[in-house]
Amino acid sequence: MTTGRQVAAEHGPVGYALAQATRAHRADLQHRMAQLGLHLGQELLIVDIHHNPDTTQAELVQRIGMEQPTIAKALTRMERSGFVQRTADPADRRVARVRLTERGEAAVPAIMAAWSKTDERSTAALTEAEAAELTRLLNIVRDSF
Fold first, then answer.
1. How big is the chain by its Cα radius of gyration, in Å?
2. What string of DSSP letters covers 54-101?
3. I need a labelling partner for 128 at 20 to 30 A (CA). Which of 44, 70, 73, 77 fits?
């Protein structure tokens, strides 16, 4: 019996390999973020807000490239979890400014360490040159779309 995965791997070996590698990478990173009390993707917001304190939701949408409803939902969750706080802009009360709480600031080094550890795990079987070549090739694949 032939499976859908076998057919996919045969007819789209690059895409299938990329999907499988992405799935494994994502699972590892998701586990690491869960240990910090975060959902995958929220770490991007925390690091961005760390570098851009008092940002607005609209500015986050522009910088991160996520949809506005996704950012809004994530910020609400992160505010409830104590990672961010929103305050009204003194110049325009309709605009909320977002900044990290102490908990959010404390998570930044752990997030960066988790990113590094997941990368290390992803490339553990590669030489340094092979890891650099993989990055180069993946960027070419990304830029072809």
1. 19
2. TEEHHHHHHHH---HHHHHHHHHHHHHTTSEEEEE-SS-TTSEEEEE-
3. 44
Backbone dihedral angles phi then psi of residue 53, each to the nearest 5 degrees: -65, 155
Q: Model pTM?
A: 0.88
Query: Which two structure tokens, joined as six digits, stand for 106?
Result: 């404390």
Distance spanning both ends of the chain, measured CA to CA: 34
pLDDT tens, position by position, 64-120 = 999 999 999 999 999 999 999 999 988 888 889 999 999 999 999 999 999 999 999
Angle formed at CA 128 by CA 17 and CA 114, multiple of 5 degrees: 70
As given in the structure block, the two tokens for residue 47 are: 């690091």
The pLDDT of residue 8 is 87
Q: What is the pLDDT of residue 1?
A: 86
Q: What percent of the chain has pLDDT over 70?
A: 100
* Structural contact between residues 57 and 96, judged by C-beta atoms closer than 8 angstroms: yes
Residues 6 or more apart whose Cβ sits within 8 Å of residue 30: 40
Alpha-carbon gap, residue 110 to 113, rounded angstroms? 5
